[in-house]
Amino acid sequence: MSDTATRAMTWLIQLSDKDENLREQIITQLTSAVSNASTTAVAAPTLAGTINGGDILVHARCTDEDAGMLRVSVDDVLAQAPVDSVDSVEYGATPPVGAAHLSGTRQTPPPTIYRALLLRVDDRATPEQIARFERDLLLMPVHVTSIATWQLSHVTDAGGPTEWTHVWEQTFTDLDGLRGQYMAHPIHWGVVDRWFDPEWPENIVVDRVAHSFCALG
């Protein structure tokens, strides 16, 4: 994560035309669009196993001064593309003062996978419930050693049909680290899942979630 970036943006883009060559052309255009205004940028096809995560994942970090140019650049590309739907979120590139515990880095081999989970917490959830939920999510990197970097963020601006409230993002050493160790770990299904499962009394995550991931580099 860049020292100069202050704002992060993520787009999950669903295409109406599934032609792979066309998708690659759009990704090339998006890569050019975000690279000019970003300190860090990813634009890539999503991988098998993505849920509500689109065909293309774009993630960028930039300064506040460049945020407007970044939005316009991406919008210009999408206006010319066969887009079915877009989910987008904006949030701080780093946690706010006093909340450094919301992100972290582990010494690992260079990560090869970027993953973002977009979710919406019920408006009726209390601050205490939300704090407990966030603490449980942040237990994941303690136990899942394939996570290289992580950040839990509150969404400041959401686009698309869902009013997203949180972004939970990580990079992983490899795909098995996400599909295997992360998804199958007891901390996931024994502690974290109850916040997402409507059959549990702790459930506060409502509507659909968007689980999207792509290769880095």
Automatic annotation (TrEMBL):
This is Dabb family protein. It comes from Rhodococcus artemisiae. Residues 113-208 form the Stress-response A/B barrel domain. Signal peptide: none annotated. Pfam families: Dabb. InterPro entries: Dabb, Dimeric_a/b-barrel. PROSITE patterns: S_R_A_B_BARREL.
